[in-house]
Amino acid sequence: MKPLDIEKKSMEIIEQELGERASAWPLKELLVVKRCIHTSADFDYGDNLVFSPGAVDTALDALKRGVTIVTDTSMAAAGINKRSAAALGVEVLCFISDPDVAEEAKRRGVTRSAVCMEKAAALGRPVIAAVGNAPTALIRLKELADEGKFRPELIIGVPVGFVNVVEAKEMILESDIPHIVAKGRKGGSNIAAAIVNALLYQVHREM
Questions:
Q1: 42-70 b/e with 16+ CB inside 10 Å = b?
Q2: Given 21, 28, 38, 82, which residue is catalytic?
Q3: Is residue 179 annotated as a catalytic residue, yes or no?
């Protein structure tokens, strides 16, 4: 089978196995859910993904305007389809390995991921923040928003793990910032990238 045929068949299987859950999602959100399941083979994403009202439309509009995507890990950045992003004038950035980020984090005794979000704020341009690993990145995003210093176009909040993960996600879920969040402990850099790709592909379908 050709790659596109394999993906099409996989998506058909996913929708079939989702059953009644598939019809509960608006189409634009369902495409994101299916992409996460396709990436992970984990059908829990059919239950635990939460979209704030209008989040997908907000993200699609931002992508059409050439928003910058900032991730908290190099792995998430690597998983984003660069060709699809570049075609929209979308830049994908990750600051986690930048020497100035490491130095600042060490000086203040905070995580590099938190400093990455500060560096994203300092860009002075519209940003989609895609967080797949570090709850501290989500916490810092919420703090920056509360301080009136930074409001991302969208927060993708899907860090994976056990320490402060659920609590950090709940902070974003309770905020008025547009968001897509995987409730609970599950997530990961691959899921953050999958959500971004699902959004990119929708924009290209509309073009």
A1: eeebbebbbbbeebbebbbebbeeebbbb
A2: 38
A3: no
